[in-house]
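User: Here's a chain of 282 residues. Predict its fold as tokens.
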Amino acid sequence: MSGIDQFIFANGIKLHYIEHGGNEPAIVLMPGLTANANSFDSVAERLSPEHRVLALDLRGRGLSEQPESGYSMADHAADVIGLLDVLGLDRVVLGGHSFGGLLTIYMAATYPDRVAKAVILDAGEMHPNVFEIIGPAVARLGKVYPSWQTYIEAARQQPAYDGWWDTAIESYFRADVMLLDDGQVTPRSRPETIAAASEGVRAENWEELMAAVTQPTLLINAPGPYGPPGAPAVQPEEAGRRTVTLFRDGQYVKVPGNHMTMLYGEGARAIAQAVLTFIDHD
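Assistant: Prediction complete.
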């Protein structure tokens, strides 16, 4: 069951999200640093219709508005609170992947009355060289590609997809770019936007924020190599397990794949099962 594109005006900007119909409690999912709402397509389709799932484009990404400033964690969180207010959602299961996982931690600590449970996908303590590891994915930003086909072929060559490809990921990459008048394509996210969001991450004391999270928290970790065999994981297993100990009520689940491939195929199935079990457990 595919989701429905929705737009909403919240916290002074237009936000795009994909709604997958289902029952309460609603699950709100926030994507990675440069990613978009379609990154959750495979996971959301497995969570719905048992639960209503809202996959959000954060400001400056996907089809959401791109203000010139306002990319701190507080700014992102205010957008999400604005969306919940407009939709009349008092408390939700809040989740996110990578940057979205950090935003989940920030919001669970800062807005405890709005977050019933927290789901974190590959976020918390990361590999010490994480920004270098994800560099090839960030490097696509600001470039113009001759065609969609050229762009998707370049995407397939990223280290994260070494020897792996699932056509389900192509909806994510199609949402990543805009078509120019001459048939060329360019990623929607601007390098300066992502740099500002990265600075927002560095500005926070994450150990203090994680210690302040009182809600039940599920960390789902995919410690596979982000590249060929022997490449480092974005969140190594030992880092994921240490992260869980910082939460007052944390659980750890390991799933197949790496930081990107975890969202598809066997990884998506394992994530959905872990999330459903977590939500249904009182």
